[in-house]
């Protein structure tokens, strides 16, 4: 009786031990070659998404920094006719807002419509630079879940194929590769998609903040030029 209890206890401990060793790595490795390829592709997409996010995040953060006294200095220089000093200040500040103001200062003496158009054109170029590669994040956010679902379809095909070849003798171990592929790729695709979607929207919000800042400073500069001498 004691021997029987010990044998069952050892068997139970082995089962529990096997369950504890079930890791993400094991799930991926047990998913078959199709599952591993899709997981690898999703990992590459995640790496690209994270690289774009951090690269753009720091670029946008840098672009949003501007001295609160910047416009006061510009007003003083323009009012006193020190256009060269104003241009040097814009170049040394080196932010999208400063570049827009610098573009406007370089057009002083021409009609206000020409100055306004020059600032608008420069603004579009600055926005394009801020949004560089951000659309790739949106693409990854949409494509990653679909790639994961592709793995699900492949996994189910493998499972059905195993059932068809089993000759009525269905063994869950035969289906494990297909089921692992179906589940792991779906989860991986959704994780990559969710991360990409969140990072994309965060960058959009940060970019909009910089664009509003550029528009506000541009209007302030144009108002300065419209003031009576």
From TrEMBL:
<keyword id="KW-1003">Cell membrane</keyword>
<keyword id="KW-0813">Transport</keyword>
<keyword id="KW-0472">Membrane</keyword>
<dbReference type="InterPro" id="IPR050790">
    <property type="entry name" value="ExbB/TolQ_transport"/>
</dbReference>
<keyword id="KW-0812">Transmembrane</keyword>
<feature type="transmembrane region" description="Helical">
    <location>
        <begin position="33"/>
        <end position="54"/>
    </location>
</feature>
<feature type="transmembrane region" description="Helical">
    <location>
        <begin position="134"/>
        <end position="160"/>
    </location>
</feature>
<protein>
    <submittedName>
        <fullName>MotA/TolQ/ExbB proton channel family protein</fullName>
    </submittedName>
</protein>
<feature type="domain" description="MotA/TolQ/ExbB proton channel">
    <location>
        <begin position="94"/>
        <end position="215"/>
    </location>
</feature>
<feature type="transmembrane region" description="Helical">
    <location>
        <begin position="180"/>
        <end position="200"/>
    </location>
</feature>
<comment type="similarity">
    <text>Belongs to the exbB/tolQ family.</text>
</comment>
<keyword id="KW-0653">Protein transport</keyword>
<dbReference type="Pfam" id="PF01618">
    <property type="entry name" value="MotA_ExbB"/>
</dbReference>
<dbReference type="InterPro" id="IPR002898">
    <property type="entry name" value="MotA_ExbB_proton_chnl"/>
</dbReference>
<keyword id="KW-1133">Transmembrane helix</keyword>
């Amino acid at each position: 009786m004691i021997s029987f209890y010990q044998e069952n206890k050892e068997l139970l401990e082995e089962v529990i031990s096997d369950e504890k060793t079930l890791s993400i790595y094991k799930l991926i490795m047990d998913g078959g070659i199709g599952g591993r390829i899709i997981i690898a592709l999703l990992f590459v997409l995640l790496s690209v998404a994270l690289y774009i996010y951090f690269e753009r995040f720091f670029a946008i953060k840098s672009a949003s920094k501007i001295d609160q006294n910047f416009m006061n200095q510009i007003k003083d220089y323009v009012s006193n006719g020190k256009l060269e000093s104003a241009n040097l200040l814009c170049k040394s500040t080196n932010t999208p807002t400063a570049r827009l103001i610098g573009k406007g200062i370089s057009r002083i003496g021409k009609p206000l419509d020409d100055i306004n158009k020059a600032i608008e054109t420069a603004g579009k170029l600055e926005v394009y630079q801020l949004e560089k590669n951000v659309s790739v994040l949106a693409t990854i956010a949409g494509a990653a879940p679909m790639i994961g679902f592709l793995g699900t379809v492949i996994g189910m095909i493998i499972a059905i194929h195993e059932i068809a070849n089993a000759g009525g003798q269905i063994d869950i171990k035969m289906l494990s590769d297909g089921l692992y592929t179906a589940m792991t790729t779906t989860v991986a695709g959704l994780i990559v998609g969710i991360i990409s979607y969140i990072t994309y929207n965060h960058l959009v919000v940060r970019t909009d903040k910089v664009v509003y800042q550029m528009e506000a400073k541009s209007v302030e500069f144009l108002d300065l030029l419209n003031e009576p001498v």
